[in-house]
Amino acid sequence: xxxxxxxxxxxxxxxxxxxxxxxxxxxxxxxxxxxxxxxxxxxxxxxxxxxxxxxxxxxxxxxxxxxxxxxxxxxxxxxxxxxxxxxxxxxxxxxxxxxxxxxxxxxxxxxxxxxxxxxxxxxxxxxxxxxxxxxxx
Length: 137
Known about the structure:
This protein is α/β, with parallel strands linked by helices.
């Protein structure tokens, strides 16, 4: 029997985007030096190894976000207990939109995401630390 998905990714994204703040990449690049802002890279470690990373961005794999945000979780990270503004990004803006919506629903604030993600950041000439080859054996 074939699954009948009634709420596809585009509907999820539409719902999330209607309730969250989306920053143009030019504005996000301008926030890089702001000590009151924490850029959060949601990409997979292999994406970061392959594409490079935003200097100073905090890495939180998307699958751990809710666990790292919740202070009651054994996986909680202190970075999410600050009074900073959180700006999420992924490769293209889809995961970060859903992540922003989830974080906002949990009560994290203020939180936004970067339109177009890391791809848009690179295309706009945002600073990037070059890719680092994996040291895995």
